[in-house]
Design a protein that fits this description.
Layout: H1 3-33, E1 35-38, E2 42-43, H2 46-49, H3 57-70, E3 77-81, E4 88-92, H4 94-105, E5 113-118, H5 124-136, H6 143-165, H7 172-179, H8 189-197, H9 201-213, H10 216-223, H11 229-257, H12 263-269, H13 272-278, E6 287-293, E7 297-304, E8 307-315, E9 327-333, E10 345-349, E11 355-359, H14 371-383
Parallel strand pairs: 2-4, 3-5, 8-9, 9-10
Antiparallel strand pairs: 1-5, 3-4, 6-7, 7-8, 10-11
Length: 386
């Protein structure tokens, strides 16, 4: 062997030795990181379990089958030391732990011990935030699931902000490192959730309403991708609208039974067109304005050309109202046996608030001259000035 060949051989051997050494070091490091713990030493705590993403039946079945066929749990569980000596609390890997436990119960070997990574946390708050942030790193999350995790994270911001306001000790490191919340007092939580999760702010606002009001079945459908956030939001808004309308109708029915309806609600139903119809007038020929509201009546001013009249709508009042009125309309409940005085009009109101014209006004009562009348006339003239 010549000198040149000898040199190349020596260099090759050194390189091979170096590769073997690096490989050995890498294996030692991996072995050092990989710790095996017996199932009996791994414990679950409900306060942490409620923050994990629950698998659907299909997802859990797929995980169970994959681990069973593989013969081992490859991905390490994340754990933290428990106060009880020799025990460790599971922070991440609850589903893998459940699969291993069920397989051991079936008599399968190789699952009595599981690989774990031991992490150190300052307190439970840091554990919670770590769990939630860790879940956001998963690729199989839908936008709605990401939003839900974001809502849980911002709940910590609100809790920490409240504690800080009450002058309690707060770990600002959670705000600055984990959550990165702004320092100003007015916090846009929708924007924070958007930044944390990568979901658009508009979608977050819709998801928040769904999260608060949707049924569990609807939420599951959104998580599974069977229904979009937009469609679910539209359904929630429509359901909410119908619920409020139903509640309003139920309340009105109860008020109707008691024969009590607020005068403001009556005024809302008394359109100017309806008033003109009671008087036998065309709405375009008359200007109408409210002058006075009392507990059970409304006084309107009517201006037709140069003529000025007063109309009083009297609710649940069987006696003519003394005062300023040329026209008089009585408003009673539907089904009430009531005959209005001569010349007066009559309207009825239904349980759902619908007004019905029963009898038109057929006369104008003359007004006596009073100082109050002159004052009101002046008031009305000014009101209708262009």
């Amino acid at each position: 062997m010549d000198d040149i060949s000898g040199k190349w051989m020596k260099m090759a051997n050194k390189t091979a030795d170096k590769k073997e050494t690096l490989s050995a070091i890498s294996e030692k490091q991996a072995a050092a990181r990989k710790k095996l713990m017996k199932l009996n030493d791994l414990v679950k705590e409900p306060k942490f379990e409620r923050y994990i993403r629950k698998h659907t039946k299909e997802e859990y079945k797929a995980l169970f089958t994959a681990i069973e066929q593989d013969g081992k749990v490859r991905e390490p569980l994340t754990v933290k030391a428990s106060k009880e000596e020799g025990k460790f609390i599971v922070v991440d890997g609850h589903h893998r732990l459940r699969v291993a436990t069920e397989l051991v119960e079936k008599g399968m070997l190789g699952f009595e011990s599981l690989p774990v990574n031991i992490e150190k946390f300052e307190d439970d708050d840091e554990v919670f935030v770590w769990m939630l942030r860790n879940q956001l790193g998963r690729r199989n999350l839908s936008p709605f699931e990401r939003a839900e995790i974001g809502f849980r994270i911002t709940a910590f911001i609100q809790d920490l902000a409240h504690k800080k306001k009450q002058h309690q000790a707060v770990d600002d490191r959670l705000l600055s490192r984990w959550i990165k919340a702004p320092n100003d007092s007015k916090i846009d939580y929708a924007q924070i959730v958007s930044e944390i999760t990568g979901v658009p702010r508009t979608t977050i606002i819709r998801a928040k309403k769904i999260h608060a009001l949707a049924s569990n079945g609807l939420k599951e459908g959104i998580r599974a991708g069977d229904i979009s956030i937009s469609k679910a939001y539209e359904k929630i808004v429509e359901d909410e609208k119908q619920k409020k309308n139903s509640e309003r109708i139920e309340k009105r029915k109860k008020d109707f039974e008691k024969k009590v309806i607020p005068i403001k609600e009556i005024e809302a139903h008394l359109s100017h067109k309806l008033l003109a119809d009671v008087l036998g007038l065309n709405k375009s020929d008359v200007n109408i304005s409210v002058l006075q509201r009392s507990k059970n009546s409304l006084l309107y001013a009517l201006k037709k050309g140069k003529e000025l009249h007063y109309l009083r709508v009297s609710y649940q009042d069987t006696k003519p109202t003394a005062g300023l009125e040329n026209f008089l309309i009585y408003l009673t409940h539907e089904g009430t046996d009531f005959t209005p005085p001569k010349g007066a009009g009559l309207l009825t109101i239904s349980p759902v608030g619908k007004l019905k014209l029963i009898k038109k006004c057929n006369g104008v009562a003359p007004l006596s001259e009073k100082s109050e009348l002159a004052l009101l006339r002046s008031l009305v003239v000014n009101t209708f000035k262009d």
